[in-house]
Amino acid sequence: MKSKMRTLLLIPFFALLLFTSCQDEVIEVTPPAESEALVANSMLTSFISSTSAKDGSADNIIDKASCLSVELPVTVVVNGLEIIIDSTEDYKVIEAIFNEFEDDDDRLDIVFPITIILSDHSEVVLNNRNDLENLIEECKGENEADDDIECIDFQYPLSFSVYDTSFQVIDVITVENDRELYRFIKRVKEGDVFASLNFPVTMIYADGSTTVVNNNEALESTINDAKDACDEDDDNDYGDDDFTKERLDNLLKTCPWVVYEFQRNEANLNDQYREYVIVFKEDGVAKVHARGGDTLTGTWSTRVTPNGALIKLEFDTLVDFTLEWFVYDLEPGRIKLYQAGGNKIILKKNCDIVVDITKERVENYLQECLWRVARLSVDGSDNEKDYIGTPLKFLPENVVKIRVKGELVEGTYEVLVRNAGIGLSITLEGRPDLKLEWLITFLEPGLIKLENENNKMVLKRHCPDGDEDINYIGDVVVTGLWEVASYTDEDVNKTEEFFGYSIDFLESGYIKVTDPNEGIIDGSWLAYRNEGLFLGLHFGMEAPFGDLNHRWKIKEVSPNRIELKDYNANGGIERILVLEQAEW
User: Fold this and answer.
1) N or C: which terminus of the chain carries fewer CB neighbours within 10 A?
2) What is the CATH number assigned to the segment(s) 468-581?
3) How is residue 140 annotated by DSSP?
4) Calpha distance 457→85 (Å, rounded)
5) Over the stretch 120-173, which tens digit does the pLDDT of each residue have?
6) Half-sphere exposure of 508 (CA within 13 A, CB side)
7) pLDDT digit string (tens) for 550-570?
8) Element (H, E) at 129
9) Which of 413, 461, 402, 459 shows the shortest CA–CA distance to 437?
10) Contacts 24+ apart (CB under 8 A), 26-31
11) Helix %, strand %, coil % of the chain (to 5)
């Protein structure tokens, strides 16, 4: 996205018929400098093409070729056993069969016909093994340098401005995935399209961390620095069993590792150990930081065998961790451990997590920005909806304020030091759900998790200052009056329920809704970023606007139109809300 030109979903350029994703209306665009236009034969254009190329190394256990992939599902015969591979998780089934015996000859046969996806995202149907071998011969060998860049990726969606020969913007298009980006850049390289990438753009490194770039020069430098900064795993040994002991040790010591799943002797212990943090120290010392603040010390060591790598953990008091764990799977930023008998740990790397939680550190974090109540569960009831659009501001001298319907309600807070760890108490009039003594169980610069007995709360940092996208959205919504142009709930059109209402967003965070009889409905709003852009709306329980209480994903913003969507847990669209500038 680009300042002064915020769009999250736009119609495709008429010449780009190859795109298959849905795109919406064109909005007014402020063109970037001409120097930002992509050059057909430039290094940056080549980098974008290589970064969006299809990586075929993930399924090398099947095809032994890093420049192509086998489309799933596919049927294979592994050591005489026929299995259907429906997802990438099933690659582990093949690996487990291969590792069952050390002295056998492992064999995998593919049941044809199959569909192959090439590095340019095109597809080819193959009817026999000879056809596949001919394609494999065109690929580089194991761990040989190839053209695709796997150590960094684009975060989608991306938008491009498309120009005519006079450098006038004639369209803006959005790409949603690598396939669309690769095909669009191919047209740029062939001279069919004259375009520029709209910034800022978020790039994702192989370890899951991100960085934001704001121009072509920074993008080219970022890709160039990252393109060889990870193991592309272009070998045929699935799961990185070829890790050396030195590489594994260095990986473990890079950052703290957070327990994401834990199973011991077939018992699910997620509730007990989830978000425990393991720090692998240089001297073979392992420190486990429990959610309550306790630190347990033990030892760790590794060894690499022909069947894979193992990590040995030993603790006097933490017996569930004490075991020699087989490294079942290694992914960027994640390690999966297992041992026979129903024992499994999934660890996620987190370089931002704070393992030394102190009163001073918590106070400093709280006072940095505003904080959203992202989750609030009290006595089994989820009450976070009551806090949509109502951020908290922690100030010095133990003063806390909450913004409700544009008004600041003042209360007090205190960071507590207890035997169980560092806690937080909040006292705000009319907010009994917060008036509890919370124990801080997880701390990052932008995230605080708290709990007590059966209650849980998650606070997420909200720093609108300096965020051009958030500021733009704020500028748009407070300009003029709005009306509900369209509202569909699970394909049921409910737009008529909102006919005659006008919506006025005020800079204070207050929403004033005027009904057809000049009555007033009060509300609160907040635009924020959380792996995307969102608009939180809360109108209380008064119909019909009570149905719109939600943290809506912003899909499109223009001076006259805002499109918001509500997604279910599976990524499907449940509701669509469209606001447009009122004509009265």
Assistant:
1) C
2) 2.40.128.270
3) -
4) 40
5) 999 999 999 999 999 988 887 665 667 789 889 999 999 999 988 777 888 889
6) 14
7) 999 999 899 999 999 998 877
8) helix 129-137
9) 413
10) 26/171, 26/172, 27/172, 27/556, 27/558, 27/559, 27/561, 28/558, 28/559, 29/5, 29/161, 29/169, 29/172, 30/2, 30/3, 30/4, 30/5, 31/161, 31/163, 31/167, 31/168, 31/169, 31/196
11) 20, 40, 40
Single-letter code of the amino acid located at 192: D
Distance of CA 574 to the CA centre of its chain: 20
Q: What is the rounded distance in angstroms from the CA atom of residue 60 to the CA atom of residue 494?
A: 50
Q: Which amino acid is at 78?
A: V
- Among residues 131, 96, 124, 140, which one has the least CA distance to residue 110? 131
Domain 359-462 in CATH 2.40.128.280? The answer is yes
Half-sphere exposure of 21 (CA within 13 A, CB side): 23
CA dihedral 570, 571, 573, 576 (to 10 degrees): 130
CA pair distance 175, 157, nearest whole angstrom: 6
Measuring CA to CA, how many Å separate 494 from each of 520, 521, 545? 21, 19, 11
CB proximity list for 398: less than 8 A, separation 6 or greater: 412, 413, 414
Query: DSSP characters for 163-214?
Result: E-TTS-EEEEEEE-SHHHHHHHHHHHHTTS--EEEPSPEEEEETTS-EEEE-
Distance CA 92, CA 94 (A): 5
- CA–CA dist 463, 449 (Å, integer): 18
Distance CA 488, CA 482 (A): 17
Residue 34 clears pLDDT 70, i.e. is over it: no
Best CATH choice for the domain 243-349 from the list 1.10.10.10, 2.60.40.10, 2.40.128.280, 2.40.160.10: 2.40.128.280
Please answer whether residues 337 and 326 qualify as being in contact, where contact means their C-beta atoms are separated by less than 8 angstroms: yes
Closest CA to 535 of 480, 457, 492, 472: 472
Q: What is the secondary structure of 77-106 as a DSSP string?
A: EETTEEEEE-SGGGHHHHHHHHTS-SSS--
Q: Quick check: pTM over 0.85? A: no
